[in-house]
Design brief:
heterodimer; A: 131 residues; alpha+beta; five-stranded mixed beta barrel; 6 strands; B: mainly alpha; 7 helices
């Protein structure tokens, strides 16, 4: 009987932990919301993350930071960002902004630049710059 | 009865490792800067190989663990344990290099997205594997228990790798091992990455070979001490032990 407990207790704990993990994966492992998801959301004070691509031609400096639009290809959300954007911030790049949604624009105070999986030289025909 | 404890010290893996690392570093420096992140891409040539070598090391730990459970030969236990130690080193290196890359690219050293969180869990699970080995003095029980953990813990590798595909994360999806084929087209970038993987693989082999040799000597010393401590057959009278440590007479 004692041998059974030695296996049952850790196995039971592992099953509970695994079940807990799977039940929470889909909600907690989503790092940011897309503009489409944000549009379906009611305006509230909840702090959340919005991710998407910066729409080219929409970036403008504001007194407190920058204003720009973020898209996932279907919906576009206006972002009012407070604070200095990171060095890599530019038109067309992926960003994740953190803040709140008032129903018409997203007020962010934290911005992360999301690099994609593509790597390429500035000029593909000239692999050695200056050569 | 006493196990052989002669030291077989092979130097050549280290010479190969130094040359391979030097070649990889040179290639990572002459490859072109990235269009978006510039010279920061050079961190990728050691960050990605470090992460892959962590996968490889823990896979070898799986092989050693299955080998031990199937044959009960201690050499498999030493392979599993040595590879896990080196794997923990490469996991820590991948996390550290990722942080150095993340700060100038993302803007933060660390964030709790799926890839980063699961990688940290993987590091701590294998640290737990090493702690389990330290906490179990009996060699056979230690080998068996850690082999079971070494088999179970492998489920993390595909979860860590595909976390960036399965869930929405800040970390970018894989560029090489992915369903649509490699996303890096520039030949020099690919060569620099391959050179990094080759160099780290040689370093990994040299470290594991050295650690296995060390573990073999450790096992031989433990085995020898165990025979020393046994009472001699026919011993009727025990000399008074005046040394401060029990059994201190050597």
């Amino acid at each position: 009987m004692k041998r059974y407990w030695k296996f049952l207790v850790p196995a039971g704990l592992a099953v509970v932990a695994l079940g807990f993990l799977i039940a929470n994966l889909n909600s907690n492992l989503v790092y940011f919301n897309t503009p489409t998801e944000l549009m379906q959301r009611q305006a509230d004070d909840a702090r959340l993350r919005l991710g998407g691509q910066v729409v080219p031609g929409t970036v403008a400096e504001s007194a407190t930071g920058a204003v720009f639009e973020v898209t996932d290809g279907r919906e576009t959300v206006l972002v009012d960002h407070t604070g200095a954007p990171p060095d890599l911030f530019q038109e067309g790049i992926g960003v994740v902004v953190e803040g709140s949604w008032d129903g018409s624009e997203f007020h962010s105070d934290t911005m992360l630049v999301k690099h994609d999986e593509n790597y390429s030289p500035e000029n593909p025909d000239e692999p050695f710059p200056g050569s | 009865m006493t196990a052989q404890a002669e030291i077989r010290d092979r130097r050549w893996p280290w010479y190969v490792a130094v040359v391979a690392v030097a070649v990889a570093l040179s290639l990572s420096m002459i490859s072109p800067p990235d269009a978006v992140q510039g010279d920061l891409i050079r961190i990728m040539y050691i960050h990605v190989p470090a992460a892959w070598l962590a996968y490889l090391a823990f896979t070898v730990t799986l092989v050693g663990s299955i080998g031990y459970l199937a044959t009960k030969r201690m050499v498999f236990d030493r392979l599993a344990a040595s590879s896990a130690e080196v794997g923990v080193y490469f996991t820590g290196l991948a996390i550290l290099l990722g942080m150095i890359w993340g700060k100038p690219t993302w803007g933060v050293w660390w964030t709790w997205d799926a890839r980063l969180t699961l990688t940290a869990i993987m590091l701590f699970v294998y640290l737990g594997y090493l702690a389990l080995r330290r906490a179990t003095p009996d060699p056979d029980a230690r080998a068996k228990r850690s082999a079971i953990l070494g088999v179970l813990a492998i489920v993390q590798i595909p979860i860590v790798h595909f976390s960036v595909v399965w869930w929405r994360t800040l970390h970018q999806p894989p560029s090489i091992i992915r369903p649509d084929g490699p996303a890096i087209q520039d030949p020099l970038m690919v060569i620099a990455l391959i050179a990094g993987v080759v160099a780290f693989t040689v370093v990994y082999v040299a470290l594991v070979a050295k650690r296995m040799e060390l573990a073999r000597i450790e096992d031989a010393i433990v085995a020898r001490e165990a025979t020393f401590e046994r009472p001699v057959a026919g011993e009727a009278v025990v000399a008074p032990d005046l040394s401060p440590e029990p059994g201190g007479a050597r």
